[in-house]
Design brief:
By secondary structure, this protein is of the alpha/beta class. The chain has 10 helices and 10 strands. The strands form 2 sheets. A 6-stranded mixed sheet has the order 6-7-8-3-9-10, with helices on both faces. The chain has a 4-stranded antiparallel sheet with strand order 2-1-4-5, covered by helices on one side. Helix 3 packs parallel to helix 6 and helix 4 packs antiparallel against helix 6.
Length: about 230
Amino acid sequence: MLTLENVSVNYDAIEALTDISLTVSQGEVVTLIGANGAGKTTTLRTITGLLEPRNGRITYEGKEISGMATHRLVPMGIAMSPEGRGVFANLSVRENLDMGAYIRKDKKGISDDMERAFTLFPRLKEREKQKAGTLSGGEQQMLAMGRAMMSRPRLLLLDEPSLGLAPLLVHTIFEAIDNIRSEGTTILLVEQNANAALHHSDRAYVLETGRIVMEGDSKQLAADPRVKEAYLGE
C-alpha cells in the first residue's frame, strides 16, 4: 500500500533521514519506534508532503506521491493525526469533527461517521458542544484521531498518540487503534511508548539518528535484547 525507497530528507545542511526504506501493506499496523530526534515525525511529514525528500521515492497504492501537496493526499485516502493534536481550539468538538470531513458531500455518511467517532470515543459525545481548547490532553488526542477518521482514510498516520497521557488514557488510545484496525483501516504509527507500540502492531522499524537500524515482526523485536535494553527499559 505504502512504500518508501531510499528516502533522504535534509533540514538545511542537516540530514534528518538517510536512505529510509519501509513498506506498509493493506490491513497492517506498522510502527516506527526510536528516541527523540530519531526522525520518526520527519518520516510522517515527508509522507504527507509537508517536507520534500532530497532523494528517493514514496509510492501509495502504486502511485508516486513524493513531494505531492498535502491537500491532494486526503482525497486519495491518507489522513494524519499530528503530534501535539492540532485541534481547532475555538471550535466545538462537533465542529472539529466536521472539519475532518471537509472533502466530503455525503451528509448521511458524514453523520454516520460522526456517530462512529462518538462510539469509538464516548467522552467526545459527552463534550460534543464544548470548545476543543477546553478539553484535557487525552480528550484532545481522541478528537484528533476522530477528526482524522472523518475523511474515511484507507491509510491513517498517527504521530505520538500517547505522548503525555496518563496510563489509563494510553490504554484507551491503543484500544481505539485496535478497533480502527479491525474495521479495515491500515495504520502507520509513530510512538515513543515502544512497549505499547510493539504490543499493538504487526511489524516495526527502529529508527536511530535518521537511519533504520532494525526491522521485523513486532513480537520478535519486543523480545530482542537490544530493543529491550534501548527502548523497553529492561
